[in-house]
Design brief:
Blueprint lengths: L2 E8 L4 E3 L1 H6 L4 H9 L5 E3 L6 H9 L12 E7 L12 H8 L6 E5 L6 H16 L5 E8 L8 E2 L3 E2 L3 E8 L6 E14 L3 H25 L9 E3 L5 H11 L11 H4 L6 H11 L8 E21 L1
Parallel strand pairs: 4-5, 4-6, 11-12
Antiparallel strand pairs: 1-9, 2-3, 6-9, 7-8, 10-12
Helix pairs in contact: 3-4, 6-7
Length: about 300
């Protein structure tokens, strides 16, 4: 059974108020007010002088579970929101892997589910390791991108992207943080960028994400009410409050503390929130929890992964 052997996160210390990217993107004063007062977004993480490599180094340098086991890593998957994160042909992930003794591993990206690709990468990593049949084999999932274009700075009407990174070491089996189930609801009708499609996506968002969480919980033999903690992607508080209402679970079970001052850190959100939960003692042995995310690119993907700590 796929398990998380270690998770680390890096969020740079720099912060900018949402008014700064909003001004560059041409948002109105009223739109900014909605983000602040309704969605409860205040700041986003930024590393103005840093690169994608710097973000990934920040996460890898904190991944203590990797130390001494570099040669066991068979695969490195970079979970991406966007298909391209640097100009071609430069490959920052491969360059960082060489620095950290992972040059022997197969390196590739997973981006088919946009912002939900982090969970896709964990599932793919587990499948690859299971097929290999090597009990000592590991896979490394990385998440982290720069807010380097206007499209990579704003989720229209929903959130602002923040900069940061995460590293997740995946094993084919383990005693802690075992994956019980993974579910994805894919909606191909959202392939496009028309205002009408965007409005419809917002309308079905909470129901579709709640359906994915319910499906994952059911496959794990649980109900949504049995999940002790929800580790979300950091879009905004309102969206998650709607999901909680649909599922009938208390808002307090969703770890939303990083939303207001970090922003939506692309595919790294759920892992950043995992580290926050672990550091605060919110993950208890034997208790099930869920990581959940949604992504819109070539269609939309609503994903949930149920684990037990």
């Amino acid at each position: 059974m796929t398990a998380l052997a270690g998770v680390s996160a890096y969020v740079p210390a720099g912060r900018v108020p949402i008014e700064e990217p909003a001004a560059r993107l041409g948002l109105t004063r009223m739109q900014v007010k909605v983000f602040r007062r309704y969605h409860r977004l205040g700041e986003v993480a930024r590393d103005p002088g840093g690169s994608v490599e710097d973000l990934l180094r920040g996460a890898l340098g904190r991944l203590r579970a990797l130390r001494g086991r570099e040669q066991d890593v068979r695969y490195v998957l970079h979970a991406r929101t966007f298909p391209a994160v640097v100009p071609y042909p430069y490959d920052p992930v491969r360059a960082v892997c060489e620095e950290y003794g992972l040059g022997h591993a197969a390196v590739f990206s997973a981006g088919q589910h946009a912002c939900a690709s982090g969970l896709l990468a964990v599932d793919a990593a587990g499948r690859l390791l299971a097929a290999d049949g090597d009990p000592d084999g590991l896979a490394l999932v990385l998440g982290g991108e720069k807010a380097f274009t206007p499209e990579a700075q704003l989720v229209p009407g929903t959130s602002f992207f923040g900069e940061g990174a995460a590293a997740c070491l995946v094993a084919a089996s383990g005693e802690r943080d075992r994956v019980l189930a993974y579910a994805v609801e894919q909606r191909g009708e959202f392939d496009g960028d028309s205002p009408e499609l965007a409005a419809e996506f917002q309308r079905v968002y909470a129901d579709a994400l709640a359906a994915a969480i319910t499906a994952a919980a059911t496959r794990a033999g649980l109900a949504a009410a049995d999940l002790a903690l929800f580790l979300p992607h950091n879009v905004n508080r309102v969206a998650w409050h709607q999901v909680c209402r649909i599922l009938g679970v208390p808002r307090e079970r969703v770890l939303l503390d990083n939303v207001a001052d970090t922003g939506h850190v692309f595919c790294a959100d759920t892992f950043v929130n995992y580290r926050t939960a672990l550091d605060r003692g919110l993950l208890r042995p034997g208790e099930p929890y869920v990581m959940a995310a949604a992504g819109a690119g070539l269609g939309a993907s609503f994903s949930a992964m149920v684990l037990v700590h």
